[in-house]
Design goal:
Blueprint lengths: L6 H13 L10 E6 L2 E7 L8 E6 L2 E8 L16 E8 L10 E5 L2 E7 L8 E6 L2 E6 L1
Antiparallel strand pairs: 1-2, 2-7, 3-4, 4-5, 6-7, 8-9
Length: 139
């Protein structure tokens, strides 16, 4: 069996084990959950203006691009731990989601994307006929 090794990943794991923290935090931390007939994704984008966020859906792939620009002033910074630049994240949407009715809201540094579950994926009742009577059961 052929195995691929990545020495940088090994260093990240070692740093996490020794320091108890991630060596490289995610640029766009995400929470995803199912809520009342929708799939909801929340992405943390603090310090990013709403006009520098792009959201695209192509062939069931949702792509989020965001840019955090550095301050334009010439202030000498003593400490600057923020990440600047372009961030991107892709989510692969299943066939059970209705990407045509996707909606997004950006508030307090959190981008919330709500994708309704497709009608074909929702539970429905199926009628069963037997002789003269008809019964309904939940499917």
């Amino acid at each position: 069996m052929l195995m691929r090794t990545d020495p940088f990943r090994d260093f990240d794991r070692l740093a996490e084990a020794m320091l108890g923290t991630r060596a490289r935090p995610a640029a766009m931390p995400m929470t995803a959950y199912r809520d009342d007939g929708s799939f909801v994704v929340e992405l943390d984008l603090p310090g990013v203006s709403a006009d520098s966020i792009d959201l695209m859906v192509e062939q069931n792939v949702l792509t989020v691009h965001a840019e955090r620009r550095p301050p334009a002033d010439d202030t000498e910074r003593i400490v600057d731990e923020r990440s600047y630049g372009v961030f991107s994240r892709q989510l692969f949407l299943g066939e059970t989601l209705d990407a045509e009715r996707l909606s997004a809201n950006y508030d307090a540094g959190v981008l919330t994307i709500r994708i309704p579950i497709a009608e074909k994926a929702k539970p429905r009742k199926v009628e069963i006929t037997s002789g003269d009577t008809a019964k309904e059961i939940s499917a």
